[in-house]
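Recall the central idea of this unit: under ordinary conditions, the amino acid sequence of a chain determines the structure it adopts. In this exercise we apply that idea directly, starting from the sequence alone.
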Amino acid sequence: MARTVEVIGARVGIGGRSLATADGPTAIRAAGLSRRIHHMRDLGDIVARPVVRAIGRDPGPAVIAEMQRYSLELRAAVEAILLRGSLPCILGGDHSIGAATQAAVARVARGEGRSVPGLIWIDAHTDCNTMESTPSGNLHGMMLAAIHGLDVAAFREVVDGGLRDPARTVYLGARDIDDEERLIVQRLGCRIITAEEVRTRGVHAMVALALEIAGGDDGRVSVSFDLDSLDPSIAPGVDCHVEGGFLWAEAQAILTQIGLHPGIAAVEVVEVNPSADIDQRTALLAVEAAALLCGRPV
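Accordingly, the structure predicted from this sequence is:
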Protein backbone atom coordinates (compact mmCIF):
# COMPACT_ATOMS: atom_id res chain seq x y z
CA MET A 1 0.00 0.00 0.00
CA ALA A 2 1.36 3.41 -0.98
CA ARG A 3 2.00 5.86 1.84
CA THR A 4 -0.88 8.26 2.42
CA VAL A 5 -0.27 11.66 0.88
CA GLU A 6 -1.55 14.61 2.91
CA VAL A 7 -1.98 17.79 0.87
CA ILE A 8 -1.85 21.36 2.11
CA GLY A 9 -2.54 24.36 -0.09
CA ALA A 10 -0.03 27.07 0.80
CA ARG A 11 -1.86 30.17 -0.39
CA VAL A 12 0.79 32.86 -0.35
CA GLY A 13 1.85 35.41 -2.96
CA ILE A 14 3.46 38.13 -0.84
CA GLY A 15 6.87 36.50 -1.17
CA GLY A 16 7.00 36.92 -4.94
CA ARG A 17 6.17 39.37 -7.70
CA SER A 18 2.49 38.46 -8.17
CA LEU A 19 -0.15 38.05 -5.50
CA ALA A 20 -2.05 35.85 -7.99
CA THR A 21 0.39 33.03 -7.22
CA ALA A 22 -1.56 32.57 -3.99
CA ASP A 23 -4.29 31.03 -6.18
CA GLY A 24 -1.93 28.28 -7.34
CA PRO A 25 -3.27 25.59 -4.99
CA THR A 26 -6.82 26.22 -6.17
CA ALA A 27 -5.72 25.92 -9.79
CA ILE A 28 -3.82 22.69 -9.15
CA ARG A 29 -6.79 21.09 -7.43
CA ALA A 30 -9.11 22.22 -10.23
CA ALA A 31 -6.78 20.56 -12.75
CA GLY A 32 -7.51 17.14 -11.25
CA LEU A 33 -5.11 16.52 -8.36
CA SER A 34 -7.45 14.26 -6.38
CA ARG A 35 -8.10 12.06 -9.42
CA ARG A 36 -4.37 11.65 -10.06
CA ILE A 37 -3.09 10.93 -6.54
CA HIS A 38 -4.59 7.90 -4.85
CA HIS A 39 -4.63 7.57 -1.04
CA MET A 40 -4.67 11.36 -0.76
CA ARG A 41 -6.08 13.36 2.15
CA ASP A 42 -6.65 17.06 1.44
CA LEU A 43 -6.21 19.18 4.58
CA GLY A 44 -7.31 22.42 2.93
CA ASP A 45 -5.43 25.70 2.79
CA ILE A 46 -3.24 27.85 4.97
CA VAL A 47 -3.69 31.43 3.80
CA ALA A 48 -1.34 34.40 4.05
CA ARG A 49 -2.89 37.81 4.48
CA PRO A 50 -2.33 40.11 1.44
CA VAL A 51 -0.44 42.85 3.29
CA VAL A 52 1.02 45.87 1.53
CA ARG A 53 4.64 45.58 0.48
CA ALA A 54 7.11 48.45 0.67
CA ILE A 55 8.87 49.58 -2.49
CA GLY A 56 12.51 48.54 -2.85
CA ARG A 57 14.84 45.81 -1.66
CA ASP A 58 13.31 45.69 1.83
CA PRO A 59 9.72 44.41 1.57
CA GLY A 60 8.88 46.20 4.84
CA PRO A 61 7.83 45.18 8.36
CA ALA A 62 4.26 44.25 7.44
CA VAL A 63 5.35 41.66 4.87
CA ILE A 64 8.10 40.33 7.13
CA ALA A 65 5.72 39.94 10.08
CA GLU A 66 3.03 38.23 8.00
CA MET A 67 5.54 35.93 6.35
CA GLN A 68 6.77 34.84 9.76
CA ARG A 69 3.24 34.30 11.12
CA TYR A 70 2.13 32.38 8.07
CA SER A 71 5.29 30.28 7.86
CA LEU A 72 5.08 29.22 11.50
CA GLU A 73 1.50 28.05 10.93
CA LEU A 74 2.55 26.10 7.84
CA ARG A 75 5.58 24.62 9.60
CA ALA A 76 3.38 23.28 12.40
CA ALA A 77 0.98 21.72 9.90
CA VAL A 78 3.80 19.98 8.00
CA GLU A 79 5.32 18.71 11.25
CA ALA A 80 1.96 17.18 12.20
CA ILE A 81 1.78 15.33 8.87
CA LEU A 82 5.29 13.95 9.31
CA LEU A 83 4.56 12.81 12.86
CA ARG A 84 1.52 10.89 11.55
CA GLY A 85 3.81 9.02 9.16
CA SER A 86 2.20 10.46 6.03
CA LEU A 87 3.92 12.14 3.08
CA PRO A 88 3.41 15.93 3.03
CA CYS A 89 2.63 17.38 -0.40
CA ILE A 90 2.59 21.16 -0.16
CA LEU A 91 1.09 23.13 -3.04
CA GLY A 92 2.20 26.72 -3.66
CA GLY A 93 1.81 29.54 -3.69
CA ASP A 94 5.14 31.26 -4.08
CA HIS A 95 8.35 29.48 -3.15
CA SER A 96 8.74 31.29 0.16
CA ILE A 97 6.81 28.32 1.60
CA GLY A 98 10.08 26.38 1.43
CA ALA A 99 11.34 27.85 4.70
CA ALA A 100 8.43 26.31 6.62
CA THR A 101 8.32 22.97 4.80
CA GLN A 102 12.04 22.31 4.86
CA ALA A 103 12.45 23.45 8.47
CA ALA A 104 9.62 21.11 9.48
CA VAL A 105 11.39 18.15 7.86
CA ALA A 106 14.58 18.89 9.79
CA ARG A 107 12.87 19.58 13.11
CA VAL A 108 10.91 16.32 13.04
CA ALA A 109 13.97 14.30 12.03
CA ARG A 110 16.02 15.77 14.88
CA GLY A 111 13.17 15.23 17.33
CA GLU A 112 13.06 11.55 16.36
CA GLY A 113 16.83 11.22 16.73
CA ARG A 114 17.39 10.66 13.00
CA SER A 115 19.74 12.38 10.59
CA VAL A 116 18.25 15.35 8.73
CA PRO A 117 17.34 14.55 5.09
CA GLY A 118 19.07 16.25 2.20
CA LEU A 119 17.30 18.50 -0.27
CA ILE A 120 16.73 18.39 -4.03
CA TRP A 121 15.63 21.77 -5.38
CA ILE A 122 14.28 21.72 -8.95
CA ASP A 123 14.12 25.36 -9.94
CA ALA A 124 15.33 27.99 -12.39
CA HIS A 125 16.70 29.87 -9.36
CA THR A 126 18.81 29.01 -6.33
CA ASP A 127 16.69 31.10 -3.90
CA CYS A 128 19.71 31.84 -1.73
CA ASN A 129 19.80 35.63 -1.59
CA THR A 130 19.91 37.58 1.65
CA MET A 131 18.51 41.03 2.36
CA GLU A 132 21.96 42.39 1.57
CA SER A 133 22.42 40.60 -1.76
CA THR A 134 18.90 40.61 -3.20
CA PRO A 135 18.27 42.91 -6.17
CA SER A 136 14.49 42.53 -5.86
CA GLY A 137 13.52 42.14 -2.21
CA ASN A 138 11.38 39.11 -3.09
CA LEU A 139 11.31 36.72 -0.14
CA HIS A 140 10.71 33.73 -2.40
CA GLY A 141 14.35 34.15 -3.40
CA MET A 142 15.73 34.08 0.15
CA MET A 143 14.33 31.11 2.06
CA LEU A 144 17.16 28.72 1.21
CA ALA A 145 19.68 31.21 2.56
CA ALA A 146 17.75 31.08 5.83
CA ILE A 147 17.44 27.27 5.77
CA HIS A 148 21.21 27.07 5.29
CA GLY A 149 21.91 29.26 8.31
CA LEU A 150 22.18 32.79 6.87
CA ASP A 151 20.19 35.55 8.52
CA VAL A 152 16.93 36.55 6.83
CA ALA A 153 14.64 38.42 9.20
CA ALA A 154 11.35 37.04 7.82
CA PHE A 155 12.48 33.44 8.38
CA ARG A 156 14.64 33.84 11.50
CA GLU A 157 12.15 32.19 13.85
CA VAL A 158 10.81 29.81 11.20
CA VAL A 159 14.13 28.00 10.67
CA ASP A 160 14.94 27.75 14.38
CA GLY A 161 15.82 24.10 14.98
CA GLY A 162 15.27 23.35 11.29
CA LEU A 163 18.51 24.17 9.50
CA ARG A 164 19.64 21.99 6.61
CA ASP A 165 23.12 20.95 5.51
CA PRO A 166 24.04 22.88 2.34
CA ALA A 167 26.49 20.13 1.36
CA ARG A 168 23.41 17.92 0.95
CA THR A 169 21.47 20.43 -1.15
CA VAL A 170 21.39 19.80 -4.89
CA TYR A 171 19.87 22.18 -7.44
CA LEU A 172 18.49 20.76 -10.68
CA GLY A 173 17.92 23.13 -13.58
CA ALA A 174 19.11 26.39 -11.97
CA ARG A 175 19.96 28.93 -14.66
CA ASP A 176 18.99 32.41 -13.43
CA ILE A 177 21.31 33.20 -10.53
CA ASP A 178 22.25 36.68 -9.32
CA ASP A 179 26.00 37.36 -9.17
CA GLU A 180 26.22 37.79 -5.38
CA GLU A 181 23.83 34.88 -4.89
CA ARG A 182 26.08 32.62 -6.94
CA LEU A 183 28.95 33.44 -4.58
CA ILE A 184 26.74 32.57 -1.60
CA VAL A 185 25.82 29.21 -3.11
CA GLN A 186 29.46 28.45 -3.87
CA ARG A 187 30.54 29.44 -0.36
CA LEU A 188 27.86 27.23 1.19
CA GLY A 189 28.93 24.27 -0.94
CA CYS A 190 25.62 23.42 -2.60
CA ARG A 191 25.77 21.46 -5.87
CA ILE A 192 24.21 22.88 -9.05
CA ILE A 193 23.30 20.49 -11.86
CA THR A 194 22.22 22.46 -14.92
CA ALA A 195 19.73 21.43 -17.56
CA GLU A 196 22.65 21.25 -19.99
CA GLU A 197 24.44 18.74 -17.74
CA VAL A 198 21.30 16.64 -17.60
CA ARG A 199 21.06 16.65 -21.39
CA THR A 200 24.74 15.93 -21.91
CA ARG A 201 25.27 13.27 -19.26
CA GLY A 202 21.76 11.79 -19.17
CA VAL A 203 18.77 12.08 -16.86
CA HIS A 204 19.30 8.80 -15.03
CA ALA A 205 22.94 9.46 -14.23
CA MET A 206 22.40 13.03 -13.03
CA VAL A 207 19.33 12.23 -10.93
CA ALA A 208 21.23 9.32 -9.40
CA LEU A 209 24.05 11.73 -8.57
CA ALA A 210 21.61 14.21 -7.03
CA LEU A 211 20.06 11.48 -4.89
CA GLU A 212 23.50 10.26 -3.84
CA ILE A 213 24.67 13.73 -2.75
CA ALA A 214 21.43 14.75 -1.08
CA GLY A 215 20.66 11.32 0.32
CA GLY A 216 23.83 10.92 2.35
CA ASP A 217 24.15 7.75 4.38
CA ASP A 218 20.43 7.05 4.87
CA GLY A 219 19.09 8.08 1.45
CA ARG A 220 16.40 10.40 2.84
CA VAL A 221 15.61 13.58 0.89
CA SER A 222 12.89 16.17 0.56
CA VAL A 223 12.19 17.62 -2.87
CA SER A 224 10.86 20.95 -4.06
CA PHE A 225 9.63 21.47 -7.62
CA ASP A 226 9.17 24.97 -8.97
CA LEU A 227 7.22 25.12 -12.23
CA ASP A 228 9.66 27.72 -13.54
CA SER A 229 12.24 24.94 -13.82
CA LEU A 230 10.30 24.08 -16.98
CA ASP A 231 10.74 26.01 -20.19
CA PRO A 232 8.16 28.84 -20.54
CA SER A 233 7.07 27.36 -23.86
CA ILE A 234 5.36 24.55 -21.97
CA ALA A 235 4.69 26.22 -18.58
CA PRO A 236 3.55 29.81 -19.14
CA GLY A 237 1.72 30.16 -15.82
CA VAL A 238 4.58 31.04 -13.48
CA ASP A 239 5.81 34.17 -11.71
CA CYS A 240 9.33 34.32 -13.18
CA HIS A 241 9.80 33.12 -16.77
CA VAL A 242 13.33 31.95 -17.65
CA GLU A 243 14.18 30.52 -21.06
CA GLY A 244 16.14 27.28 -21.40
CA GLY A 245 14.27 25.15 -18.90
CA PHE A 246 13.42 21.47 -18.93
CA LEU A 247 11.03 20.17 -21.55
CA TRP A 248 8.31 17.92 -20.23
CA ALA A 249 9.88 14.62 -21.32
CA GLU A 250 13.03 15.58 -19.39
CA ALA A 251 11.12 16.73 -16.32
CA GLN A 252 8.87 13.69 -16.38
CA ALA A 253 11.89 11.37 -16.33
CA ILE A 254 13.50 13.36 -13.50
CA LEU A 255 10.36 13.45 -11.38
CA THR A 256 9.56 9.79 -11.94
CA GLN A 257 13.04 8.67 -10.87
CA ILE A 258 12.99 10.86 -7.77
CA GLY A 259 9.44 9.90 -6.83
CA LEU A 260 10.24 6.18 -6.93
CA HIS A 261 13.15 6.70 -4.55
CA PRO A 262 12.20 5.12 -1.19
CA GLY A 263 13.56 7.93 0.96
CA ILE A 264 11.29 10.85 -0.02
CA ALA A 265 10.42 12.79 3.14
CA ALA A 266 8.33 15.67 1.76
CA VAL A 267 7.23 17.18 -1.55
CA GLU A 268 6.58 20.77 -2.64
CA VAL A 269 5.09 21.88 -5.97
CA VAL A 270 5.11 25.66 -6.25
CA GLU A 271 4.82 28.88 -8.25
CA VAL A 272 1.75 28.18 -10.37
CA ASN A 273 0.35 31.60 -11.26
CA PRO A 274 -3.13 31.06 -12.74
CA SER A 275 -3.34 34.65 -13.99
CA ALA A 276 -0.46 33.94 -16.37
CA ASP A 277 -1.51 30.42 -17.36
CA ILE A 278 -3.00 29.39 -20.69
CA ASP A 279 -5.73 26.72 -20.82
CA GLN A 280 -4.55 25.25 -17.47
CA ARG A 281 -1.32 24.07 -19.12
CA THR A 282 0.88 24.85 -16.13
CA ALA A 283 -1.65 23.66 -13.56
CA LEU A 284 -2.01 20.33 -15.36
CA LEU A 285 1.77 19.88 -15.35
CA ALA A 286 1.77 20.71 -11.63
CA VAL A 287 -0.74 17.91 -11.02
CA GLU A 288 1.43 15.44 -12.87
CA ALA A 289 4.57 16.65 -11.10
CA ALA A 290 2.95 16.23 -7.69
CA ALA A 291 1.75 12.73 -8.55
CA LEU A 292 5.15 11.62 -9.86
CA LEU A 293 7.03 13.01 -6.86
CA CYS A 294 4.57 11.27 -4.54
CA GLY A 295 5.43 7.95 -6.18
CA ARG A 296 2.37 7.65 -8.44
CA PRO A 297 3.89 7.04 -11.89
CA VAL A 298 0.53 6.02 -13.39
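The longest helix spans residues 61-83.
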